[in-house]
Design brief:
Shape: elongated
Number of helices: 16
Mean pLDDT: 84
Strand content: 15-25%
Low-confidence stretches: 211-215, 342-348
Number of strands: 18
């Protein structure tokens, strides 16, 4: 940073360190600066996870050699972080180069991002060790953001420029881009030579610490409001679904899943809750607006609002970005999002995949709520609650409990229907012993998944 002075000190003596460039010190951009940041991603900002580096597979239409992105990270909000690195002073077009990369990166989906991260993690492993699967990489990314990746947030990358210095043209462009609602940061480093060592200092020069909240543009306010709307829509859909279907009974106890919170808050929250376990507990009530009653003070909250309050009490920091329905779980270990029947997206759960699968269970066969849930990435309780009230579910009587029994909550769609579902199944060829259907006639989750692509008649 311009004007910065660095000294090595001993009692009564302060010796000024000599400012040098990385080139003078013999360091390179890729093999040194890039590696330092990969090992210390906090240089790019708090809570950033490196996803991949030197990425160039942009699939250009004309198949010419694509540009190479230095580093791609992911912050705890679920936004991509595009980092452009320069070993010396930044050229006056560096921000334009980074904007191009951000535009490319905005096309990532959760699935394609997981594929790239799996390749990155596998390349970091020792030769001969097992490669990281795409599912394994996706779990790590989801764990970092405390939920599942949101495609809308992935489409709004942040930019971090790292260089020894920035010319006025870049600084002016960066300020303007910030005012336009694009999140961009400038990080400067300086190298110093002492008698025995090379010292590297790193400072964020834009946005300026502590005054960022007081220089927010109207566009930035609108962007934040849009982000909040996405999160509220996700939460509202989960809560509305649960209340409408009566999935959870009043007064059922829920527990805070610390693992679903942002990584930087988990340790402090866990310690704070351990001091008084009621801080991490709430009871459910079927109220769309505020379904949680916090055991700490008996006050009503939304899932996200209460999770944020716990984080604020534990860490002293406000405004954590979380997905509340994923942070509260029942005694069976299912989150509110899972119980609502969807784990991805922000829309109301579309049960057409369930209806299609039920149509593939043939006479003489049966399946379970858990098998169906596994096949469509839902929860057994959510599937059970839907089937009980659904008028579009074909042959719902072929869905039994895990041990092959008729569910206690089973009812026919026609309230005047008095048939015994066991007799109906037996007439179709299903064998029962002591009230339990034959395991040999069960269609389990793998078999259901194989039938998913088969159209119903």
């Amino acid at each position: 940073m311009a004007g910065e002075l660095v000294f090595t000190v001993q009692p009564g003596v302060a010796q000024r360190a000599k400012s040098i460039s990385l080139a003078q010190a013999g360091f390179r951009e890729r093999s040194d600066l890039q590696e330092w940041i990969r090992a210390n991603p906090e240089i790019l900002g708090s809570g950033i996870k490196i996803v991949t580096f030197e990425f160039a597979d942009w699939q250009a239409r004309d198949r010419t050699a694509a540009d190479r992105l230095d580093l791609l990270g992911l912050d705890e909000e679920g936004r991509l972080v595009v980092a452009e690195l320069k070993r010396g002073p930044a050229p006056d077009t560096v921000e334009m180069q980074a904007i191009k990369y951000a535009a490319y990166a905005s096309r990532f989906t959760p699935e394609t991002l997981a594929e790239r991260h799996a390749q990155y993690l596998s390349s970091m492993r020792n030769t001969g060790s097992e490669r990281v699967t795409v599912d394994g990489a996706k779990e790590q990314l989801d764990e970092h953001v405390g939920g599942e990746l949101d495609p809308e947030l992935l489409g709004q990358p942040r930019i971090v420029l790292v260089a020894a210095s920035f010319p006025p043209q870049v600084t002016a462009s960066t300020v303007w881009l910030t005012e336009m609602g694009i999140k961009i940061a400038l990080v400067e480093f300086n190298a110093y030579e002492t008698e025995h060592d090379i010292i590297l200092t790193v400072s964020q020069t834009w946005p300026v610490a502590d005054i960022e909240e007081f220089t927010v543009s109207p566009r930035e306010v609108a962007r934040r409001a849009a982000d909040e709307q996405v999160r509220r829509r996700r939460e509202t859909n989960a809560v509305v679904t649960l209340v409408a279907e009566g999935t959870i009974e009043d007064d059922e106890v829920l527990t805070l899943d610390v693992g679903a919170l942002p990584a930087t808050t988990r340790e402090q929250v866990a310690e704070w809750v351990a001091e008084s376990p009621v801080r991490g507990q709430a009871t459910w009530r079927n109220d769309r607006r505020a379904p949680l009653i916090w055991a700490e003070n008996d006050q009503p909250w939304s899932p996200t609002g209460l999770a944020r309050e716990v984080i604020a009490r534990a860490t002293g920091r406000q405004g954590a970005v979380i997905q509340g329905p994923r942070a509260w779980m029942t005694a069976s270990g299912e989150s509110l999002s899972e119980l609502a029947g969807f784990r991805t997206g922000v829309g109301t759960r579309d049960w057409s995949d369930l209806h299609n699968l039920l149509g593939q269970v043939q006479p003489g066969e049966w399946t379970s709520y858990g098998d169906l849930a596994s096949a469509i990435d839902s929860s057994a309780r959510a599937v059970g609650m839907h089937v009980q009230v659904c008028e579009k579910c074909p042959a719902a009587y072929r869905v039994l409990t895990n041990n092959g029994e008729i569910s206690q909550g089973f009812t026919w769609g026609d309230p005047t229907d008095t048939r015994d579902p066991v007799e109906v199944l037996e007439n179709e060829g299903v064998s029962f012993t002591d009230g339990r259907a034959s395991p040999a006639q069960r269609v389990e989750a793998p078999g259901l998944k194989q039938r998913q692509a088969v159209p119903t008649a």
